[in-house]
Amino acid sequence: MSSVTSDREGVEQVFKRFDTNNDGTMSLKELRDFLAALNVDEVMLRKKHVVALFHLINADKTEHITFEEFYKWWQLMAKTHFTDLETKMRGISHLYKYFTQFDKDQTGALSQEEFKQMYNALELQSSNKPVEDFVKELDSNGDNAITYHEIAKLLGYC
Predict the structure, then answer these.
(1) In the predicted model, is pLDDT for residue 24 greater than 60?
(2) Checking DSSP bridges between strand 65-66 and strand 109-110, what pairing results, if any?
């Protein structure tokens, strides 16, 4: 995309263009259609990659992306004119894969023990800091669990 709009009305027009059923939200299929229109590589249009991005954008964990969620994500991506979208999608996809693998109870959040297992399995021990300290840093809402969004935010994906 050579010229990326970041004004709310322009983004809303884009959103409405891909909201093909006019329900005011974006489904997984509509998100995929949007990505295809951006000429995202066919490999990145595979369901696993689109699902990971969908869950990243869909902060309220419903079955559809609201305009507000889309707009927030758009603003982040517009800063780089969407140039690193595919790279970010790869990272998001990997993160989602590992997150869901270690979210054994499928609550949508990693307990301290689940996070510790992921932390050790992925050999994230790059400092002398105990895993409990990482949990405290990542746990933005103080519920003693780490969500996909909390990790993604730390990694700069949202």
Answers:
(1) yes
(2) unpaired
Architecture of domain 1-82: Orthogonal Bundle (1.10)
Q: What Rg value do the Cα atoms of the chain yield, rounded? A: 17
Q: What distance, in Å, lies between the first and last C-alpha atoms of the chain?
A: 20
User: If residue 98 lies in a helix (H) or strand (E), which one and from where to where?
Assistant: helix 85-102
Query: 1-82 and 103-158 share one CATH topology?
Result: yes
pTM: predicted TM-score of the whole model, two decimal places: 0.73
Distance between CA 1 and CA 13 in Å, rounded? 16
Contact at 8 Å (CB) between 6 and 74? yes
Q: How many helices (H) and strands (E) does the chain have?
A: 8, 4
* Inter-residue contact 92 to 104 (CB < 8 Å): no
Please name the residue that has the structure tokens 């979208």: 85
* CA–CA dist 130, 67 (Å, integer): 39
